[in-house]
Design a protein that fits this description.
The chain is α+β, with helices and mostly antiparallel strands. 44% of the residues lie in helices and 22% in strands. The protein starts with 8 loop residues before the first strand and ends with a helix. The relative contact order is 0.11.
């Protein structure tokens, strides 16, 4: 299932009631959670005991795959982060809506794939240690390069910085298009060029 070795499968239900009781959620928070999530199953646990070809990593001793049946695709990411807090372990979130699947993983920030056909969704255990496997999975889900000189964490931070700069540039370009005063328009243009230079340095 999803390319995972049969020995890793555990198929243990995780009930919403457990989430509500763990965090003592208010009525509005329960409604938000319930609006997105139908049911959850701890699908698999990957560890050297279950996959003998893998050895423990320095940081990663094992990780879970949590299957989350969604009621809608446009979900609130706060609910996924809540599940991450509930289970203080490394987790791959396998979100499923109808015939589509999305992978999520929390590493510095929440990383997400695009939605894909469930039949095409797979988790590849690539590496000799669990640290390597985990980093490769984070890179795949986050659209990062596991072989780059920059660490995964550095790539995530730099991508966020670039995205922030791009949003600022987009906002200034809109202002520039509607600005009537020549001097103000020039100042906006200069600021845009300055931000574009910063992007090249990130």
């Amino acid at each position: 299932m999803y390319g995972l070795p049969a020995n890793t499968l555990i198929n243990k239900p995780l009930y919403k009631k457990a989430v509500f009781e763990k965090f003592n959620l208010k009525a509005a928070e329960r409604e938000r959670f319930d609006a997105d999530i139908s049911k959850m199953v701890l699908l698999a646990y990957v560890s050297p005991d279950r996959v003998p070809a893998l050895s423990e990593g320095k940081d990663i001793k094992g990780f879970y795959v949590l299957q989350v049946m969604m009621k809608r695709k446009e979900y609130d990411t706060k609910n996924i982060l809540l599940l991450q807090k509930l289970i203080p372990q490394k987790i791959i979130f396998l979100l499923q809506y109808e015939e589509q699947t999305q992978f999520c993983i929390f590493h510095t920030r929440l990383q997400q794939t695009v939605w894909m056909q469930t039949g095409e969704a797979a988790i590849t255990l690539q590496g000799l240690t669990l640290d390597d496997v985990w980093n490769n999975i984070v890179a795949t889900i986050g659209g990062l390069d596991a072989q780059a000189e920059e660490s995964i964490e550095e790539q995530i931070i730099h991508r966020e910085q670039r995205e922030k700069l791009l949003r600022q540039i987009e906002s200034l370009e809109k202002q520039c298009r509607t600005e009537k005063q020549t001097r103000k328009k020039y100042e906006l243009h200069q600021k845009i060029q300055e931000l574009k230079s910063k992007i090249k340095q990130v």
